Please model this.
Amino acid sequence: MSSQLNYKSIATKLVNGEPLAYKALPDGGLAVIAPTGQKFIFTTEQVQAARQKIKPDPKPAAKPPTKRGHPQKSPSDSKKVSP
Model:
């Protein structure tokens, strides 16, 4: 199923919202009815560009290690005030 394009996600990206309807065209393009009711026909190149933008990363980025221990005090915190 991963080889099949997710046309709904592509259509959503192309019209910046949830499409009312969409249909893949034989030439690789996509016809989309936008949430506003407007009909758009996107070329194969536009569909491929949108597809590249929504592709998930193969591996999630590693989070940097967090420092453990007590938070450092600022220099003003270390000054003692004598009564």
Summary: The chain is about 30% helix and 15% strand. The chain has a mean pLDDT of 81.
